Amino acid sequence: MKSLKRKFHYEKLDSTSTFLKCRRFSLRNFTFVSCDYQTDGHGRLGRTWHSNPKENLLFSLLIKDEKLIKNFSSLSICSAVSILKVLKNYNIDNLSFKWPNDVYVDGKKVCGILLESVSDNGKLSNLIIGIGINVNSKQFNGEYIVPPTSMCLQLSKDISIDKLKKQVYRQLKKEFYLLKKGNKEYLKIAREHNFLKDKQVYAKINDKLCKIFVKDIADNNALIYEEDGIENQIFSGEVTFHI
Ligand code: BTN
Questions:
Q1: Which residues in 84-122 belong to E strands, given as ranges?
Q2: Cα of 112 from ligand 1 centre, angstroms
Q3: What is the number of alpha carbons within 13 Å of residue 102 lying toward its C-beta?
Q4: For range 8-17, the mean pLDDT
Q5: Which of 9, 42, 45, 51 to mutate to test the pocket of ligand 1 (most atoms within 8 A of CB)?
Q6: For residue 143, is pLDDT > 90?
Q7: Could you read off the pLDDT of 82-119 as tens digits, one per residue?
Q8: How far, in Å, is the centroid of ligand 1 from the Cα of 123?
Q9: Ligand 1 close to Cβ of residue 56 (< 6 A)
Q10: CB–CB of 110/149 below 8 Å?
């Protein structure tokens, strides 16, 4: 039987995304699960996502809606734009969107997003959007390619995780509704806050390291870049950056 509940919170989970993946058959579209601490939190490229208990917002969202699933590449940008909008309301300056799905403040990472697809009987059936927002962490242990920051470090005050969670849930619901209706405002915001725009970066594209100049984000959500004077596009999943 399907659970009617759509919001869950736990003290401790292995990972909010793994939780949804394992229970996807009994849960409804847009089920939201958060926790205070993950014992096996994961990020992109098989990296570990560390977060001390009760310091940050860790959650995942289950997407079963076929129209949204087909919009995979829009969903990752739309999720990041939703978070960016919520953080903007906290008067955090210098927010940017790092294509395809991170949110930066002052060039430091404040939020990471991991989109995972699940197939059943060979058919893409569900998407799981896992999001970690650094809220009240004051120091970060470990090695990072991009330096991390938190809302608290940027604003010099502690933030209520519960209040933030409600705002984030509401914003994601609103943005996904607009996305389903064909609204492309999320792309405008992403372009206006495009961290990589006009930057020369190293990108590993399909396992080959290339020096590219980033130009813009295309209507199909790909990143438009130039390499040796030739314009091209990359899709998320094909690339890792070395800035
Ligand atoms: C990244 O930047 O590499 C993405 C990080 C995503 C981390 C979140 S925390 C909540 C959810 N559960 C996980 O195990 N990962 C995501």
A1: 95-98, 102-105, 108-120
A2: 6
A3: 20
A4: 98
A5: 42
A6: no
A7: 999 999 999 999 999 999 989 999 999 999 999 999 99
A8: 24
A9: no
A10: yes
Query: By the 8 A CB rule, do 210 and 203 touch?
Result: yes
Cα–Cα dist 150/101, whole Å:
17
CB 6 within 8 A of CB 30: yes
Task: Tell me the mean pLDDT in the region 176-193.
Answer: 96
For residue 156 the two structure tokens come to: 């010099």
Contact residues for 58 (Cβ-Cβ < 8 A; gap 6+)? 16, 34, 35, 36, 37, 38, 41, 49, 51, 131, 132
CB distance 42 to ligand 1 below 6 Å? yes
Helix (H) or strand (E) holding 161: helix 161-180
For residues 220 and 202, what is the distance between their CA atoms, to the nearest angstrom? Answer: 22
d(Cα 159, Cα 115) in Å, to the nearest integer? 26
Ligand 1 close to Cβ of residue 101 (< 6 A): no
State the Cα angle at 40 between 35 and 41, rounded to 5°: 60
CB of 38 shorter than 6 A to ligand 1: yes
Q: Write the DSSP symbol of residue 42.
A: B
Indicate whether residue 96 lines ligand 1 (CB < 6 A). no
pLDDT at 230: 95
pTM of the model: 0.95
Check residue 157 and report its DSSP letter.
S
Please name the residues in contact with 127: beta carbons below 8 A apart, sequence gap of 6 or more.
62, 63, 68, 69, 72, 75, 115, 116, 117, 118
